[in-house]
Description:
Blueprint: H1 10-15, H2 24-39, H3 43-65, H4 68-85, H5 95-113, H6 120-126, H7 135-139, H8 143-154, H9 157-168, H10 173-180, H11 184-210
Helix pairs in contact: 2-3, 3-4, 3-5, 4-5, 5-10, 8-11, 9-11, 10-11
Amino acid sequence: xxxxxxxxxxxxxxxxxxxxxxxxxxxxxxxxxxxxxxxxxxxxxxxxxxxxxxxxxxxxxxxxxxxxxxxxxxxxxxxxxxxxxxxxxxxxxxxxxxxxxxxxxxxxxxxxxxxxxxxxxxxxxxxxxxxxxxxxxxxxxxxxxxxxxxxxxxxxxxxxxxxxxxxxxxxxxxxxxxxxxxxxxxxxxxxxxxxxxxxxxxxxxxxxxxx
Length: 211
């Protein structure tokens, strides 16, 4: 008999091991205050942004790279770029979208610097699936969550990135599209396909154990 847990929406299970974002209204209000402080060189504003988003940026980078050490380095680079750009931010800057756009760009820059491939997607698609656990697999509390994390890690990079930003981080399709140079329709299409792949992978895994 198949496990009921495996039949749950894989996106919902991923959110169980990811930080839950604050409500949109509260987050938007805080961001306005932080942007104003950053534009005026207030260290407290940078500290507040770092505290609010550091873990979320790291989570995205850890799941995209599968390496905690690399994710730590790239997260540091994201916030260094914020520090350098702070005074030049537009007053209407949406910080979350800005940070994840930079995080995506840092990933692409890393791939190019390593001369592995011309793009991040190609690098990660050609990377053999690790037999060890990713940082988030290590933190997963249940067998089902481990299965979901493994299925996520096996997704093509372009699909995985959309899942992380839309379903986990809760970003609007328009913001994700701007970060990844995709139309909102293309973002929604990738998310739909990713959900299908995850569901099929979990169903096949459940079938093997039930057999």
